[in-house]
Amino acid sequence: MPEAETMVKVFARPTSLNEKHFTYCPGCDHGLITRLVAGAIDKLGVQERTVFIAPVGCAVFAYEWFRCDGIQASHGRAAAVATGLKRANPDLVVISYQGDGDLAAIGTAETIHAANRGEAITVIFVNNQIYGMTGGQMAPTTLPGQRATSCPEGRDVATMGHPLPVAEMIATLAAPAYVTRQSLHDPRHVAQAAKAIEKALRYQVEGKGYSLVEILATCPTGWRMPPAVAHQHVADVVTGAFPLGDLVDRG
Amino acid sequence: MPKGKVVVDRERCKGCGLCVAVCPFGVLDLSKDYNSSGYAVVTAVHPEACTGCALCAQTCPDVAIEVYREKAAAGTPTRGAGRP
Amino acid sequence: MAERQLMTGNEAMAEAAIRAGLRAYFGYPITPQNEVLEYMAAHLPQAGGAFLQAESEVAAINMCYGAAAAGVRAMTSSSSPGVSLKMEGISYLAGADLPCVILNAARGGPGLGNIAPAQGDYFQATKGGGHGDYRLIVLAPSTGQEAAELAGLAFDLSDRYRVPALILADGMLGQMMEPVTLPPPRDPGTLPPKPWALTGAKGREPNLIASFALEPTVLREINVKRYARYREIEAREVRWEEVATEDAEVLLIAYGTMGRIAKTVVRRGRERGVKVGLLRPITLWPFPYAPIRTLAERVKAILTVELSAGQMWEDVRLAVEGRTATPFYGELGGVVPTPSDILQEVLRYA
After folding, report:
1. How far apart are CA A243 and CA A197, in angstroms?
2. Is the Cβ–Cβ distance between A96 and A62 less than 8 Å?
């Protein structure tokens, strides 16, 4: 350890995280997003009011990693669970953390209607274009031509549809306060994503309503790419299909 | 250049190498040291080059890195710290 | 203060639920339970509760899951096809040990079926319509008055045991207008505390609510503990009504709307000198196996009557275990038999 007299800690683990280890694969952006969410909870000082909702998917254990109340939702229903929590107790700060299969396939109805009602919740949408937990099947966000275990020849848009533009879809609605798409492929984008998550949470605390932060994430295991190569792939390819930036900001 | 130091929690590290790729000064590299989960953990092979910029920690998906910096320079914000 | 009002069964259950301290209701329109949704829309917000018409039954039950986790009394209502959609959420409620009240104003099925009263959802309600090893407390009212009483009881039992409770009614009970004496309103603040609820981890360790345990021995332990509570419920909470069973030679067994019709059968039978009695299960789970078994020792036949092809009949036969004859009479498709139809059947065994 550095000597206390001469060195100070400039990067520490967020206090909203407990000591448990993440269960994600090596190099998976889920861990980074989990840490950014915890950082935002710290920054806003809402740890004692927060309920973290974990989805079904690779983040299924995530409710166990925060020093906050947590709940596990059934596949796709996190936005409905969040609605129930928030309507029952509006003082809670409710964070729904969901992947693309969860939010954009099986949970599309719950996602859109919670957004359309302007539920005062914060939705973190992890778009890694694949079903990671179940072994790399095609997701609603899988890119045209991208291979997955359930589209071994690549996604054929003629029969399998196009990547679902979730942030753009939610941005068409009247109610959401903040809709943005972020990436994590380099430190600058990580810093921007951190700010976006913080803003989304702050809007909830300030009573401004619904926010969705879509984050382009890697799945090095499912994509069969080394983590650093996967980040380069996001920069070169994925951000072309899913443009970054704020789509709605009614703060 | 401020002097920094990284501390890697070897049991949290999964050897993904993202910190190795992002470090501007080549401080870090994967070692032949395996943790109890079987991952080759990251270590500071050139600790003398560390400035405490914390890009490695900002990138680490497993929150396995803590970063220290000399007191004189510690007020410098780490978020968004750019490449030299 | 007791108040006697003329109201439909659906309204009676809705008002009784509000008076029991309900503070979060989520529903979706489906006949024949729309009056519950509409009553909640008009009255629950005034009582300080949250009402929301959800985008689907699936969303509604998951909103209940969230509200129940937040520690408030939560409820949803639907009818058969809609209750099928809720089954995933009900399994999760059971797996997370969350209290919740689900009302099924059952209709004819399967599939879209029709909107007439039926009892084809008995298996779904009592045998686990969703996945996994779980039980629901299932209450079957037969009158508007009883519907109001059981609505309150459903919340109390569900909270006490942390087991979801389902009220299995039907379209006839829901739509029929009767005088009902309502219980006095209860202040949710006076209900027993829920230290497990998600209220924010302030001054305590975080509370976690989940039905997830990857390690088999851990999941086994959770299930074993839950089954210990189920055994307690079976020991303490069986409810039933007996009518003219003391000297009965033919025993009718019927619940809900059919139980009400069976009472008329008993009265008319007795007027004609037929020694017919009735055992009406009020809790379908836990099922009154023991009293049926006792009566089976001394009656000539136990005639189960249902608005189904014979679902509760299986539980009756499990109770009787061959001690006496166990014939069945049922109607299907939402057709409701008359007392005369059933009395004809009784006479075959008298």
Report:
1. 17
2. no
Whether A77 sits inside 8 A of C208 (CB atoms) is no
Helix (H) / strand (E) containing C316: helix C312-320
CATH number of the domain that residue C106 is part of: 3.40.50.970
| Neighbour tally for C42: CB within 10 Å | 11
Interchain pair A227, B18: CB under 8 A: yes
Query: Which class is domain A29-249?
Result: alpha beta
Backbone angles phi, psi at C228, to 5 degrees: -65, -40
Pair C283, C137: CB distance under 8 Å: yes
Q: What domain range is C148 assigned to?
A: 3-191+223-236
> What are the angstrom distances between the C-alpha of C350 and each of C178, C279, C299, C314, C327?
33, 16, 10, 22, 12
Residue of C129, C120, C117 whose CA lies nearest to C166: C129
Domains in chain B, start-ordered, CATH in brackets? 4-73 (3.30.70.20)
Residue of chain A whose Cα is closest to the Cα of C204 = A48
Q: Is B54 on the interface with A (CB under 8 A)?
A: yes
| Residue A88 sits at the chain C interface (C-beta within 8 Å) | yes
Beta carbons of A35 and A17 less than 8 angstroms apart: yes
A35, closest residue in chain B (CA to CA): B63
CB contact under 8 A, A12 and B66: yes
Does A121 lie at the interface with C, CB-CB under 8 angstroms?
Answer: no
A7 to B61: CB separation less than 8 angstroms, yes or no: no
pLDDT in tens, chain A (251 residues): 445 568 999 999 999 999 999 999 999 999 999 999 999 999 999 999 999 999 999 999 999 999 999 999 999 999 999 999 999 999 999 999 999 999 999 999 999 999 999 999 999 999 999 999 999 999 999 999 999 999 999 999 999 999 999 999 999 999 999 999 999 999 999 999 999 999 999 999 999 999 999 999 999 999 999 999 999 999 999 999 999 999 999 98
- Please tell me which residue of chain A has the smallest CA distance to C49: A88
Domain count for chain C, please give it. Answer: 2
